[in-house]
Amino acid sequence: MGHYLLFSWGITYFSHGALLTFLMGHYLLFSLAIAHVDNCRVLLSYSFPMAAREWEHEVEELDSVLQSIEAVLNLPKLEKESLELEAEASAPNLWDDPEKAQVVTSKLSRVQSTLTRAKTIRRHLEEIPLLYELALEEKDSAALADAGNELDTIAKTIRELEVQTLLNGEYDDRDALVTIRSEAGGVEAADWAQMVQRMYLRYCERKGYKVDVLETSYAEEAGIKSSTFRVSAPYAYGHLSVEQGTHRLVRISPFDSQSRRHTSFAGVEIVPVVEQSDHIDIDEKDIRVDVYRSSGPGGQGVNTTDSAVRITHIPTGIVVSCQNERSQIQNRATAMAVLQSKLLERRRQEERAKLDALKGDNSGSWGNQMRSYVLAPYQMVKDLRTNFEVGNPSAVLDGEIDGFIEAGIKWRKSTGN
Questions:
Q1: Cα 381 to Cα 379: distance, rounded to the nearest angstrom
Q2: Hey, is 317 helix, strand or coil?
Q3: Distance of alpha carbon 156 from alpha carbon 115, whole angstroms
Q4: What is the pLDDT of residues 137-153, one digit of tens each?
Q5: Which of 10, 14, 187, 404 is the most exposed place for a label (fewest CB within 10 A)?
Q6: Pick from 412, 411, 382, 376: which is nearest to 396 by CA?
Q7: Exposed/middle/buried for residue 87 (C-beta within 10 Å: 0-12, 13-18, 19+)
């Protein structure tokens, strides 16, 4: 008969006039039906029914997890903080001090975003039982599938929010400055650095994060020497900070005429954006400012004037650049902000090193070769700290790195880093 018959609520077998009904409550797929009328029976060949989804149990577990998250977030405290920040943001003289105003509005945005997210998840979770009950009552397979998809989405969102509760570091809720540099590997490394840059930009695009590219130095043949961009989102630094370290690529080189396998490296540095309250003072005598013409692709007026700025902090040797703006003054201000952020991170690392020395902890940084991306002879992306791995490098390089970041945050929490 070759056609598939879909039975949803009962199967009836006729044998010598006897009626036997099995009420199933699930959908069975029949692939072959042969009727023998003379014996008054039906011989049926079918696949076994799938086990019922225990959605009530799943909802109970998710509700328990969400209650724990709400307790950690302390929603009443966040509500109070939101009201205080709203009052501060509505002050008529707020923008007399632009830097302070930006700190207030950014913090208000983060608090409100967390509150809205937690409340939205709670509301959607409470709607799940109603969706299932309606679908079962109406015997609507499409509605039942939609309810299952909604439950999967809620579970994923709650897991992401649970990970966010682990981000309780001093700077975790801030915006992030991401710097990517090509390391060992020549033109291969420059091309790899640009691939890493695209991976993070695609990740930010998927998450809806705002990105401002501050500086990009292009290599001569292909790829980039370095790039710095700012990621603006609640807990951007907390999430991205676990990505700091050396990323290693193994592949058949597109730049090798003999198609040999090459290994190249790209370094990723993540620092929190400095705020007014951080008190990072930079003496003008400690910096050297150079101006130069912007490099790389540019539009009208971008590459025709010496508007790009490079600042060298002489005591530490830290060098920052900015060529994103048309004005030299704007580029200098942005470069100074980047320098402050890097000096803040340096100070934090020095303080941590002192604590580690007191504890006798000589394990050092976990940054070196934190992840390997193997494209040949097999395909695998593996985090060397958490052992989290994915067999689909194309998806990872297209920005699907949530699993790595989640594993990294949990690893950092468990190790106390």
A1: 7
A2: coil
A3: 18
A4: 998 989 999 999 999 99
A5: 10
A6: 382
A7: exposed
